Amino acid sequence: QVQLVESGGGSVQSGGSLRLSCAASGVPFSGYVMGWFRQAPGKEREFVAAITWTGRTTYYTDSMKGRFTISRDNAKNTVSLEMNKLHPEDSGVYYCAADFRPPGLGARMNKDEYEYWGQGTQVTVSS
Fold this sequence. Notes:
mainly beta, four-stranded antiparallel β-sheet
């Protein structure tokens, strides 16, 4: 059974930092692109970042570039999202997701392409 479990969410003030982690089990982790998405109340779930299974290529939404860093540890089956200079607009539930992709193909940003999802972790940034 595939399981993705996020942790590390919380409340911070604007300009602060948080580090989210996602632990995966039940999948051959190294074969999956891992992504982070977020959903604010009343809004669609949106792409935040993704990382290929080798960890060599990363993808970000423009507004996150330079502030967020995605990384993975295939030996530990974990993927992390370091978030700095947080804005109130970054608030929402952050989800970890897995997308099986053959080697050499990049990550996809469409949430519908991701097969597995975690339960989400809440991030609240106050002004």
